[in-house]
Every structure is written in C-alpha cells, then in structure tokens.
Amino acid sequence: MTGKSATSRKMLLLAPLLLFLGLAYVVPFLGVVRWSFTLPEPGVGQYRALLTDPLVQSVFARTLRICLVVTAATLVMAYAIAYVWVRGSSVQRMLAEFCILVPFWISVLTRAFGWLAMLSNRGLINTWLQSAGIISEPLALARNELGVIIGMTHFLIPFAVFPIASAMRSIDERVLLAARGMGASRIRIFWTVFVPLTYGGLIGAALIVFVFALGFFVTPAILGGGRSVMVAELVYLRIFQSPDWGLGAAISVVLVLFIGVLLALMRRFIKPAHLVG
Amino acid sequence: MPSSRPGPVLLIAATAVALFLLMPLIAVVPVSFTPARFLSMPSGTLSLRHYQALIDNPAWGQSILLSLRIGILSSAIATALATMFGLGIWMFQPRFAAVLIGFVLLPLVVPPVVSAMTLYFLMTTLSAFNNWIGYDTWLGVALAHAVMITPFAVVLILVALYQVDRRIDLAARGLGANLATRAFRIIIPNIKFGIATAALLSFVLSWEEIGVTLFITSVNAITLPRLMWMGLRDNIDPAIAAISVLLIVITAVILGFRIFIERRGASEPQ
Asked: Is residue B98 less than 8 Å (CB to CB) from chain A?
C-alpha cells in the first residue's frame, strides 16, 4: 500500500461528511456573520446596539439568570435520580431508568405542552387546589419565568444524568469499602468520598446543561407566553416579527463566541460520549 | 455493596424527581379527554372528540406522513455519512482526529437558534437557484435535519467502534483483506447495533425537530411538530393533548419493553 493511495482512501471515507457540513453549515454560518455586519447597513452598528439597547440587555440578563437557576436545579435533581439509577436495587434501577429515558425520548414540544397541562390556570394543579378549596383564584404558574424554569429543568435533567451516572459508575468500590472500614458513617462517606469523586461528571453535566439552556427556544416560547423572552426567542422575533435580520445575526454571532470561549476553557471536562448515555 | 445502597433521604429525593419527570406526561392524559374546546381538566363527562379531530382533520395525517418521509431520508443521509466518517477515523486514526470529530459535532454544540438561523440562510440561498430543495420544501427540511442529527449519529457510531477489538481488524489485514472487505465483512458487522441505534435516534430526532423547522418552513412543509406548534401558540387546541398522549404511550411502551428485556437478560446468566 503506497502512502498516496492510503491518503486518498482515508479521504474517501472522511471527506463526504466534512464536505457536507462545510457546505451546509459552515459556509451558511459565514453568511450569517456577514448579515450581522451588512444589515441594514454596513458597519458594526448592530454590535453597538447590542451593547446599548436596554431591551437586548434585559433579555441577556434574564437569560443568564434563568440559565444559572436552571443549571443548579437540574444538577441537584439529576444527582438524586442518577444515584438510584446507578446504585439502587435492581427494581429501583429499572424504575429510575424508565423515568429518565421516557422523557428523554419525548419531544420538547410535547413536554412543554405537558407542563402547560400541569401549570396553566385550568391545569391539573390549579384545578386540584381549587376543588380542594385551598385557593380561590388560580396561581400564576405558567406564562411566566417560573414556568420557563420548571419546563427547562424538566427538559435538561436527562442530559445531566448521563455524565453524572457515568462518573458514579467509574468509582472504585474499594475506596468506599476502605472509608467504611475506617469507620466513616454513611453520610460522611457520601459527602466526603462519593460526591468529590463525581466532581468531573458534575462539571461536565453543568457545562452541557448551561450551554443547552443558553440556546433554549421552544420551552421559553411556550411556557413563558411571550412575557419572559430569552435570547433565542429574541432572535426568532427579530427575524420573523420585526424583521431586523442584522440584530438577529449579531446575537447569533455573540452566542457562538460566548459558547466557544466557555467550551475552550472547560475543554478537559467534555466527553462527547456522555451526551447520549 | 450495602454501604452504597441509596438511603431513605436519597430515595425520597429520587422519588420526587421521578414524579417531577413523569407528571407532565401524565397530566396530558385527562386534558385529552376534556369535552371543552380549550385546555382544561374534564369535570364529570369525558369526550373522545379530540381524538376524533385527529382523524377528521386531514392536516394531522398529512403532517405525520411528511414527518415520516423527512425522518427516513434525513436519518439515512446522517447514518451513511456518520458511518463512513466513523470508519475513516477508526481505521486510519488520522493525526487530527480530535479536531475532525470536534468539527463534525459543531451543530450539536452551537445553540439551536444559531443553527436555525444558519440553515435559514442556506435555504433562502438555495431557493434562489431551484424550486426543489430550499425554503419551505420537504427536501430542504430533510437536508437541514440531516445537518442537525449527524453529530448524534457520529457519537453513537464512534462509541460502538471504540468497543471493537482492533486485533480482529489486524488479523483480517494480515490475511490480505482489502479496505472494502475489512469495512463490510469485519468492522460493520461488529458495529451493526451501533449503526441501527444511530439510525433510530436520528429518525426520532428528525421526527420531533422543531427549532430549525420553524425557521425554514411556512405553509407547505408542515411537519407534525410544526403543526403542533401552530396549535400551541395562541388558543391551545386540546387535539395537541390527544396526539401527545399517542406519542407518549408509544414511547413509554417501546422503552419499558426494552428496559425490561435488557434487565432480565442482564440478571439471568448469573
């Protein structure tokens, strides 16, 4: 086998996907970058608007706040169910797996609708509370920031469970036995041995959840009811409602840069295989 | 390992999380039987009118067929491209493998709304040159979905490849097998479950894709999620609840069955 033919065979296998994504993804993205500098007029006007427009600023601030709350809530909840999934009895493991995987495979749209059915004025919770006589007026649970946070946390839990569970599985059982042999209590073993050994998985999970949450679009649009707009929905509104493609494009570019920097900083915690369990 | 079995506190917490995960899926069921025209819990009488609406309104059937067609085509494209790419990485171990893999995972890491904008640009550009593939066409949607789902297929196929014992490939090479023989007779049979999983996940992801689809369709290429989205925005149509219940039941039955089989298979040999 000559070196040249090996190279051409290698390219035969690798090139189709690289070309496909290059032409259908990277080149069009450069087009979006161009939009951000040319629409409605050439220059950096859109980026200046991003820095000064109070509406855009408040949307960015809200997005960041929601993302942080959602990331924290998701990690705590994912940790609890991941623990049972990894270390529970065989029935507990089966139940946990069912509860993690069924939502994971159901579309974001159906899940957002499910939360509307739970939280809206005539939804499950308000109907129950009213018929039980606990409240007289329905609680405002959906169509606001609370609804968005609940819906996003629900969507992201499975994505956090996979890296956390993977870290839990790779813990050496003997370390825990040693801690026990030295007389540590169950609670002490959990907090000072078990949890620190899963920090890698937790950081990976936090990163995945945060990055996904930043670009969230469907859940906020449905559960926020237009009242708590996040960055991604702002892009959509700028393209389809008040045509301002330049600003939409500029926001997209800033989002990509932000996530690029974030991922570069956290490179060593990312393991692609964790994304799909 | 009794020391590490979940204690009562964790079990209660995990049960709460499990309820949280399942509740919205369960809440859809009563809503789908409401006799009212708006989202509400039925009180007293139940009605099948929203299930009847799924049959009576041809838009639902059409969108389901369209989503199936798009899902099959985009999953086929994504799986084929990802398999070739995975084989290339595994067999040749190119020097910049990590960079190449990072590159093909881009649509996964980039926020969906940015991908949507990018593909919107692509589709409007393509529409300027032809009528078949571009903005608001089913081939355009299939192409856009293929871009979005390929990274998932790549991850699954690479995971499957890393579990293959390299020595069987070395043995085949030593016995004089050429590239095609190694790929088709040795490696692909060993990762066929990985390829099947990749194809299935790709199909499901395309089937339920909404973020990008919203940007690149308007009136012609109405996929099932697109139709649901239209029914969700203003006045919430309880027919959405009926179709959701069907989707949830199908998913839960398939997954429950799979988990049951796997667990039973895993515990039997011991």
From this structure: no
A86: tokens are 């990894």
How far apart are the C-alpha atoms of A88 and A85, rounded to whole Å? 6
Fold held by A54-276? MetI-like fold (1.10.3720)
**Which residue in A108, A143, A150 sits closest to A229, CA to CA?**
A143
Residue B186 neighbours by CB under 8 Å, 6+ apart: B168, B169, B172, B177
Report the complex ipTM: 0.88
Closest CA to A153 of A115, A195, A106, A120: A115
Best residue of B1, B3, B163 to probe chain A, by most A CBs closer than 10 Å: B3
What domains lie within chain B, and their CATH numbers?
Answer: 66-233 (1.10.3720.10)
Sequence spans of domains, chain A: 1-38, 54-276
The token pair that represents A276 in the structure block: 């799909």
User: Tens of pLDDT along chain A (277 residues)?
Assistant: 445 577 787 888 999 999 999 999 999 999 999 999 988 888 888 888 888 888 889 999 999 999 999 999 999 999 999 999 999 998 999 999 999 999 998 989 999 999 998 998 888 899 889 888 888 888 888 888 999 999 999 999 999 999 999 999 999 889 988 998 998 888 888 899 999 999 989 998 999 899 889 888 888 888 987 778 899 989 888 888 878 888 889 999 999 999 888 888 877 666 655 555 4
Nearest CA in chain A to B79: A17
Angle of helix B58-92 versus helix B224-233 axis, rounded to 10: 130
